[in-house]
Specification:
Strand content of chain A: 35-45%
Number of domains of chain A: 2
CATH architecture of the largest domain in chain A: 2-Layer Sandwich
Largest sheet of chain B: 6 strands, parallel
Helix content of chain A: 25-40%
Mean pLDDT of chain B: 96
Mean pLDDT of chain A: 94
Distance between the termini of chain A: 26 Å
Shape of chain A: elongated
Number of helices of chain A: 4
Oligomer: heterodimer
Strand content of chain B: 15-25%
CATH topology of the largest domain in chain A: Alpha-Beta Plaits
Largest sheet of chain A: 5 strands, antiparallel
Helix content of chain B: 25-40%
Structural class of chain A: alpha+beta
Order of helices and strands of chain A: EHEEHEEHEEHEE
Number of strands of chain B: 20
Low-confidence stretches of chain A: none
Distance between the termini of chain B: 58 Å
CATH class of the largest domain in chain A: Alpha Beta
Low-confidence stretches of chain B: none
Radius of gyration of chain A: 19 Å
Number of helices of chain B: 23
Strand order of the largest sheet of chain B: 3-2-4-5-7-6
Largest interface: A-B, 22 and 24 residues
């Protein structure tokens, strides 16, 4: 592609795949080999009976690149279905994060107040540390992390974005790339 | 072992036979010995022992492209698999159906850096359409049947099946092909009905139309070529083919404009630039075809038929995309054209053909050959004479097959050898693999024992896989290697002359062998022509000799391949000859393009 003036878009894409060895490597290799961006990627089996896994990935690119990404994903043999949740109307996006703060008593008290405000849960505590669990949109988690930073934040673990479309339609009812 | 059980190796061979395979190209090694042992004890499959695994894959490609069947390769683990990688990548780029079986160290040693172990599925993941590592003997048959289905369905491509040695020894059940369907892979074959209607309507309303068709037509089977020919003739529109698509539309037809692209004809490229409706069927807007993207056919409505959705809107934005199989879609286009009683705009079409005639009159493929018997041979003349002296046989018997290596000779062959039928032209297009043509010719000859199979070669490319002379000798394959020998890597030399200030860095082929003696060393026949007066006799003798022949044709060392659209240039900036002044004309951003 020649350099372009087209705007960069952020897209959340759901990919249903046959849960077979190497399928994640195929998806990641495609992004690396063709120079696409991955902002986040999550994967887990979602249907044990049919051995289907769901990959949710967030990427950025011009409209033409995003279309190309979806077509390239759909072309992988073990990929069953590619759905662009961003194109399919509003969707619920969530991330889960586990955050550890370590510090003196005063700092820890301060983090408790902040966590209350963000609706985070304390899931572990010791005399000198807390672990918080928070679920929310990416921006909300970013903000929580930012707020904790001055009070001894020492570890961040995030899942990356999960998403489903709002409304009654399931993934099988939404428009797939190949349709 | 119970009665219904077989060893993994036996299952492999039974699956191949049930898939209709009759020949396997391969090379044994430790990790595939059980399969070779089983091969030794049966009569259904022929095995062709190549001299290097790259040759095995190219041979299978030649076999596949000339027969329309899936080509099969059998190699060992480690170096066997890594040597096959170039061939696999070549097959992926040119969409050739291949199933490549690789041996692997036993399952319990995988990951231990065992002797001749490599991560075959990891290495071949980006250069295959799909690949498998089989870890259970009861999955061997199913996996192989699935591999054949994937290789030949949709956009064809190479599939690797990695078989650990313990699985080849183990006993298991066989599953017949009928019992196997892929869980999810179902390529879409019929084009969208509305898009088809819109496409045919746009075709009918065109003032300056052009058909631009590619390898997708060839891959869709000979019937697709027949249907395309019918459609093109019924509309009266001009047609150009890509390098991969030559033979899909008869070159002898007056509506054929020749090949397009970097070394395509003046008329094909100018018609692409000036057309108002472009009907692309089974071609992928490759950079060799489009030239400068921002100036590619700027004023046309573009219809793009491709079986691979990822080819659509990848390089060029199109107006009417149609995802489907070329045969199905062209058939439907023809039906719609007839049902709607469409007629081309006769006046506009006449004006368009008049314009095309003006471009044709530039005679962009012309060259000057001094016909004095002692004159030096122009490479174009050598290839043209080869075409002329095989033309009658090609017309009457349809059994002349041309493969090529990569470089100037390849482009001259594409320009000067006319193909009226599909599957008679085998060349490495996407990957541009030097060393492709000779092993590919061996594969073609295995599929067509009585045919005339000629590898149009350059001496540098031929040197890359000449070990296969031994293979040709062993199976008494009367393959002809027609070397246009200019002692240079011709295309490299051409670019260095035109774009790098005549600094010929490492492109001279010093210390070449005596190709006539080389032929003799392998039990083949060596012939040589150094002057125009000798050329026809050498070609005639080459054709008449029922053995492997190397014809060493010494040609003009300074000849360049024209027309040429330099990197980063638009179609209308095509250069017709050495007088066209190139170096000043090539912008810096064009220089970085390959």
């Amino acid at each position: 592609m020649p350099p372009t003036q087209e705007p960069i878009e952020r897209h959340t894409i759901a990919v249903l795949v046959d849960n077979e060895p190497g399928v994640l490597a195929r998806v990641i290799g495609l992004f690396a080999g063709r120079g696409y961006n991955i902002e986040s990627l999550t994967v887990a089996e979602v249907d044990a009976r049919s051995q289907r896994s769901r990959i949710t990935l967030v990427t950025r690119g011009t409209r033409m690149i995003v279309e190309q990404i979806k077509a390239q994903l759909d072309r992988l043999v073990p990929v069953d279905r590619v759905t662009d949740l961003t194109d399919e109307g509003p969707c619920v996006e969530r991330e889960l994060a586990l955050l550890k703060v370590r510090g003196g008593r005063e700092d820890l008290v301060q983090t408790l107040r902040i966590s209350d405000f963000f609706g985070a849960r304390m899931v572990d505590s010791s005399n000198e540390s807390f672990v918080f669990e928070i679920t929310g949109e990416t921006a909300q988690i970013d903000a929580f992390i930012h707020m904790l930073e001055p009070y001894g934040l020492c570890e961040v673990s995030r899942t990356g974005v999960l998403a489903v479309a709002k409304g009654p339609l399931g993934i099988g009812d939404l428009q797939a790339v190949s349709e | 072992m119970s009665e219904t059980q077989m060893t993994g190796a036996e299952i492999v061979l039974k699956a191949l036979v049930d898939q209709g395979v009759d020949v396997v190209f391969g090379y044994p090694g430790g990790a595939v010995l059980p399969i070779y042992d089983a091969l030794h004890q049966q009569n259904h499959l022929r095995h062709v022992l190549v001299r290097h695994e790259q040759g095995a894959v190219h041979a299978a490609e030649g076999y596949a492209r000339s027969t329309g069947k899936v080509g099969v390769v059998l190699v060992t683990s480690g170096p066997g698999a890594t040597n096959a990688v170039t061939g696999l990548t070549d097959a992926l780029m040119d969409s050739i159906p291949i199933v490549c079986l690789t041996g692997q160290v036993p399952t319990h040693l995988i990951g231990n850096d065992a002797f001749q172990e490599c991560d075959t599925t990891g290495i071949t993941r980006p250069c295959t359409k799909h690949n498998y590592l089989v870890k259970d003997v009861n999955h061997v048959a199913r996996t192989l049947h699935e591999a054949f289905y994937v290789a030949r369905s949709g956009r064809p491509g190479p599939v690797v099946v990695d078989l650990p040695k313990d699985i080849q020894f183990a006993a298991g059940e066989y599953t017949p092909p009928e019992a196997v369907t892929h869980k999810t892979y179902r390529p879409k074959l019929s084009g969208d009905a509305e898009a088809l209607e819109a496409a045919v309507e746009a075709m009918a309303n065109a003032k300056r139309p052009i058909f631009y068709t590619g390898g997708g037509i060839i891959n869709a089977g000979p019937e697709a070529s027949d249907l395309l020919t019918e459609l093109v003739r019924e509309t009266g529109y001009p047609c150009t083919n890509t390098l991969m698509g030559l033979g899909a539309f008869p070159a002898s037809d007056p509506q054929f404009l020749g090949m397009l692209g970097m070394h395509g004809t003046y008329e094909a490229n100018l018609a692409m630039y000036h057309c108002d409706v472009m009907i692309n069927i089974g071609a992928r807007f490759d950079d060799r075809v489009t030239g400068k993207l921002s100036e590619f056919s700027p004023n046309s409505t573009k219809i793009h038929v491709d079986i691979d959705p990822s080819s659509i809107n990848k390089n060029v934005r199109v107006d009417i995309p149609i995802v489907g199989d070329a045969r199905t879609v062209v058939k439907r286009m023809l039906e719609i054209w007839r049902a709607r009683r469409y007629k081309p705009d006769a006046a506009a079409l006449r004006a368009w053909w008049n314009q095309i005639q003006v471009w044709r009159d530039r005679r962009s493929l012309s060259f000057h050959q001094d016909m004095d018997a002692g004159a030096i041979i122009k490479p174009q003349h050598a290839i043209k004479r080869l075409a002329q002296m095989t033309a009658e046989r090609a017309q009457t018997r349809n059994d002349v097959f041309i493969t090529t290596e990569v470089g100037q000779h390849q482009m001259w062959a594409a320009q000067h050898i006319p193909f009226d039928r599909p599957n008679r032209w085998m060349t490495s297009g996407g990957l541009g693999t030097m060393g492709y043509g000779f092993p590919a010719a061996i594969g073609v000859q295995m599929g067509h024992p009585d045919a005339l199979v000629i590898d149009v070669a350059g001496e540098a490319s031929f040197m890359m896989n000449l070990q296969e002379l031994s293979t040709a000798a062993q199976y008494r394959l009367p393959v002809k290697v027609f070397i246009t020998n200019n002692h240079w890597m011709g295309m490299v030399r051409q670019w260095q002359e035109l774009l790098h200030g005549e600094r010929y860095s490492e492109s001279y082929m010093d210390s070449l062998p005596d190709f006539v003696k080389l032929a003799g060393a392998f039990g083949a026949v060596g012939l040589r022509a150094t002057k125009v007066g000798e050329l026809d006799d050498v070609i005639a003798e080459m054709i008449a000799t029922d053995r492997t022949v190397i014809a060493d044709i010494h040609v003009d060392q300074n000849e360049n391949c024209f027309p040429m659209i330099p990197g980063g240039k638009a179609h209308y900036e095509i250069l017709l000859g050495p007088g066209d002044g190139l170096q000043e004309a090539t912008p810096e951003d064009g220089m970085v393009l390959v």
